[in-house]
Structure formats: C-alpha cells, structure tokens
C-alpha cells in the first residue's frame, strides 16, 4: 500500500497522470486581425483567410449560421440543428459541421477532445461547466462580457486562465 501511494505521488509530480498532461491557458484569449492569418470579422460575420484549410472554412461558415441564435440551456444536444444553443452545443455544432467530430458532447467531454494544447487553426478552451473555441484566431463564445448572449463571434479579450486547451488533430 505504501509503495502504491508513493508511485501515485511520483506520477502526479512528474505529470504522468491524465490531469498532469493537460495544457492550461495562462494568457487572455485575444483577437488581433492579421491579413491571411486570422479570420476577418465584419458586421457580425467571420470570413476565413484564403489559405485556411477547408475544414476551417466550414467551421467559420457553421459559426456564422449560429450568430442569430439565442442562448438555450441544453440547446444543440437533443436536437442537433436547434433553435438555440448552449456553449457545448455551439462548439459541437461547429466541429461537427466542419467534419471534425461526430454527434455532440457536454462541456466536460471536451476535456479529452482531440489533442492537447493550442491548435494552429482551431483551439477549444474548456473548464468545468463551460467551453468556447477560437477558429482562425476569432473566438466563438456564448458568454463573457454581457452574459449568455447565445453563440457569437467575439473580438474582445476574455481570461483564458483555468481553461484547458484542446484542438482537433491537425488543426
């Protein structure tokens, strides 16, 4: 028993447990437009950089379709093409429409989604009870800075601290 306790303690200290392998955001999530590198936000709609992979372009198109939807607790789960979306329903919708996942999952499911760390094109930020994402540098979120607005592209910064970063493999 003592040996098992020491082994678990050592694994935790060395970062060999599943919690130790997570990459947590430490900086605010900020949007800075860079031509050809990030999505352009104009009149509430996002436009993908021309050189973005097709899946990223599909993700942006999917996010644009959500812009007039209200926040709806549980939205996007029982009905995939819903009248409103919560945070995990919106992120699931965008990733599904981009061809990067099947079905949907609650926010806690994103703790193990894809690969760890920030992606080159898409990053999912998750903490207990909330998930949001960036696509080509632009944040899609249902909250922060104005309450539960429904899924919207948001150029203003928000704290990233406390969120684990995950991304679809290759993106």
From TrEMBL:
User: InterPro entries from the xrefs?
Assistant: Papain-like_cys_pep_sf
Specify the domain of life of the species encoding this protein: Bacteria
Q: Where is this region: Disordered?
A: 149-171
Q: Where is the composition biased (Basic residues)?
A: 160-171
Coiled-coil intervals, chain numbering: none
| Protein known as | Peptidoglycan endopeptidase
- Look up and give the organism this protein is from: Haloferula rosea
């Amino acid at each position: 028993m003592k040996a098992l306790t020491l082994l678990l303690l050592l694994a935790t200290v060395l970062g060999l447990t599943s919690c130790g392998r997570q990459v947590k955001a430490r900086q605010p999530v900020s949007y800075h437009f860079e031509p050809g590198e990030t999505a352009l936000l104009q009149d509430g709609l996002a436009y993908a950089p021309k050189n973005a992979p097709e899946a990223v372009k599909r993700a942006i198109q999917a996010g644009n379709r959500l812009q007039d939807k209200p926040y709806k607790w549980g939205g996007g789960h029982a009905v995939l093409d819903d009248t409103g979306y919560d945070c995990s329903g919106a992120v699931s919708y965008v990733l599904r429409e981009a061809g990067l996942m099947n079905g949907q999952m609650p926010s806690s499911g994103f703790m193990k989604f894809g690969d760890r760390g920030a992606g080159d094109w898409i990053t999912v930020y998750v903490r207990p009870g909330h998930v949001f994402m960036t696509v080509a540098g632009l944040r899609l979120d249902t909250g922060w800075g104005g309450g539960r607005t429904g899924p919207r592209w948001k150029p203003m910064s928000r704290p990233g601290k406390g969120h684990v970063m995950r991304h679809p493999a290759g993106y």
